[in-house]
Amino acid sequence: MKIIRDLKVEHFQNGRVEWIGLCTARRGVVEIVSEAKVEVGTGLVGDHHATSGKSERQVTMIQHEHLPVVAAMLNRDEVRPEEVRRNLVVSGINLIALKNQSFCIGDAVLEGSGPCVPCSRMTEILGPGGYNAMRGHGGITIRVVQAGTIRIGDEVVPVSEPTNDGEPIEDDDQASRQKKLFS
Length: 183
What we know:
This protein is an alpha+beta fold and 183 residues long. It has helices at residues 4-7, 67-73, 81-84, 121-126, 130-134, 174-182, and strands spanning 15-23, 30-33, 35-39, 43-44, 59-63, 88-91, 102-105, 108-115, 140-146, 148-151, 155-158. The protein has a single domain, classed as M1 Pyruvate Kinase, Domain 3 (Beta Barrel). The two termini are 21 Å apart.
């Protein structure tokens, strides 16, 4: 029988990058790009949020499947990615499952750091109810672990959780896994 720790790193399929956006200035227009470089400690090169070096919110990512849900809650035909002001839109993988987990996109290694909660701008941009429509659908914040380039079409690939010696756990026997982890 699998334990919760095992289930948290088990994914049915990989995700896919559908859209990339950079906000070059505070409250500025989101620039749609086909690729972006990410740097350790800051985030996407050219994004105004990528400056502090200490933030847990170096990159933001929202699930493509949530955009129609938000649109439906606002009685709109669609919500465009640039309206929600996230850096990446991905499909095919549950983003909350990536919290506190490493994953690769392109040659970059990233780690989910927490939920990306909406700001008051969501009502300003999406209209009345925009803030509440985004609650629970805002995606996740990400730390950059290894620099690289992310492109539209890249896979989002979760990284297996390593043991203390750096090797992935592949044994299906729970007692064996626990012994490897805690010895």
